[in-house]
Amino acid sequence: MTASYWDYVARRFGIMLLVVFLAVSINFALPRLMPGDPIENQLNQLMASGGGAMGDVGAMVASYRARFGLDQPIFTQYLVYWQSVFSLDLGFSLTNYPERVGDAILAGLPWTLGLLGFATLVSFTIGTLLGGLMGWPRSPRLLKSFGSGVLLLSSVPYFLIGMILLYFFAVVFRFFPAGGGMPFGMSAGFNLESIRAIAWHATLPLLSIIIAEIGAWAIGMRGMMVSVLGEDYIALADAKGLRPRRIFLRYGMRNALLPQMTKLAMALGHIVSGAILVEVIFSYPGIGFRLYQAIQSKDYFVIQGIVLLLSVSIAIAMFILDLIYPLIDPRIAKGK
Amino acid sequence: MSVPVLEVDQLVIDYGTRGGVFRAVDDVSFSLNRGERFGLVGESGSGKSTTILALMRMLRGGRVSSGGMRHNGRDLAGVSDAEYRSLRFAEISLVPQGAMSSLNPVLRIGEQMGDIFDDHGVRHNRGQRAAIISELLTQVGLAPEMRHHYPHELSGGMKQRVCIAMGIALRPSLILADEPTSALDVIVQKQVLATLGRVQQDLGAAVILIGHDMALMAHFVTRLGVMYKGRLVETGSVRDIFANPQHEYTRMLINSLPSFDRRKSFRSGAARPVRPAAFQEGV
Ligand SMILES: Nc1ncnc2c1ncn2[C@@H]1O[C@H](COP(=O)(O)OP(=O)(O)OP(=O)(O)O)[C@@H](O)[C@H]1O
Ligand SMILES: [Mg+2]
């Protein structure tokens, strides 16, 4: 884990850069490949779909023409585009002009990362543990049947669970708010009141994701555990007279966990796209809700910005996973 | 004569299968004296591994239907599962068939040797533990530094040696070796067997060696048992069996050896096994 590890890290880092490079390039190329002028296309569509409240259209067209420098050679445009990506300057929102796309993303990102990140980690932890125990022959029967019940829930889509929770706990019994990230008019801060309000608003969306996702993690882990327990090294661990607890943790879970980690990184990378439905149902002020609104109103540059963020965040998540993986599986860095 | 290390008495083992009950071991009896080397040969599926798994109480999907096993005179049927765990490797150890895949890929060699001590209540401080593991590795002809390595960094022969080192860690009185060399090339096979023989002699442990290769077997063991379709069809000294095989399958096994091997095996198998030192050891 010295020279070969750094070699490996360098290789993985190169791959990540390549993915980011491709994502940005495609994001650059797509609007230019579309027939006609992308800006006029957008604005015409918006006009046609009846946006009287568009603000100063003339100023927008001028601003975009200047920004894209559409009269410039394509390579210059490309360089300028990279520059704007680096400075997080992704243009303006069409519907909320003059809001900047970068600002819109930054406003939604903490909400999404908080909600989905927390929900993903919690469901991963519970689901993985549950799945491991379900695949372990010595587990109590009760736990296994409880687990089977939880697995059933995973076949229910989480937005359905979300709507059921919403109906019962926000509409019928008004325990929790029906939507939003915090009370109207309140501003987020690092104080107890604010944190409590945020947690209170996040409870139902969190629950709906966690309930729905635990099963998926558990199913994967149970399968892995069962197959790991069939391995020769488990048989030898048993023959060695090791304590069941050690066999479960150090020989079983430890090995079955490896593919779960890959899935976890993927899930974390897909947080933004995964957030859309739950954020829509709970009108949660995250990036998924924003993307949904942008798609509805054809807010082209916001969509573009969020999609770019999506691809970059997946690339980064995979890179981080690549960094940790050799630490949990010593075979990786040495491998081809 | 003192109590045998192992007595197997009319052992019957059945597997429950979809097609009904399958009798994998049928009325098998044999016994081993202290420090004795016993070879078990027989065609594939004849019940050799099943017999050994029963001794470890590690049958999967099978059960001992009748008969019994005694270790140093103690009836193993009366031992509770928890007690059986502490018996494993402390009294009866196993050198597995597939050493290639028998080591945990994510633990260092030293860790998976050390946990044997931990879970059998043997306490060491860090220095003692390192010294003991180094000593074990040296005993099987490996460099002490191997304890810092992961299994994928070792060759097949090295892994097999690690398995042998684990098998002797708690100084058991009986070592069960299920084709410990089947995945290795001929030269390494001999080296590893020689290593097993040497450490076994140092310990004074008895050993049951399972294998298919009659020539290799004849070099290693003093007594042979031949299994056929779940039955132990003959047992005897290597010399007697080679000179006067009783069962059809035994004759076939011996006749399938090249004649040079047959003579050599017969001679060396006679009174004493070839001294392990006669094999070149190495990795
Ligand atoms: N878990 C099991 N369930 C059902 N039948 C089994 C099981 N394990 C083994 N058997 C059957 O029991 C018989 C004996 O198997 P065993 O593994 O003891 O053979 P073996 O002599 O060790 O063969 P080999 O030389 O190929 O290792 C075989 O016919 C096998 O199909
Ligand atoms: Mg076998």
What does this molecule look like?
The complex is a heterodimer of chains A (336) and B (283). Chain A has 336 residues and is mostly helical. Chain A has helices at residues 3-33, 38-48, 57-68, 74-86, 101-134, 141-153, 158-172, 192-229, 232-239, 244-269, 271-281, 287-296, 300-328, 331-334. Chain A has a domain at 104-298: MetI-like fold. Chain A is 76% helix and 0% strand. Chain A is globular. A 6-stranded mixed β-sheet of chain B has the order 6-7-8-3-9-10, sandwiched between helices. Chain B has a 4-stranded antiparallel β-sheet with strand order 2-1-4-5, with helices on one face. The longest helix of chain B is centred in the C-terminal third of the chain and has 18 residues, at 186-203. Chain B is globular. The chains are: A mainly alpha (336), B alpha/beta (283). The A-B interface holds A 231-233, 235-243, 246, 250-251, 254-255, 258, 328-331, 334 and B 56, 58, 85-90, 93-94, 96, 98, 101-107, 115-116, 118-120, 150, 152-153, 163, 166. The complex binds adenosine-5'-triphosphate and magnesium ion. Magnesium ion binds at residues 48-49, 97, 178 of chain B. Adenosine-5'-triphosphate binds next to β1, β2 and α1 of chain B.
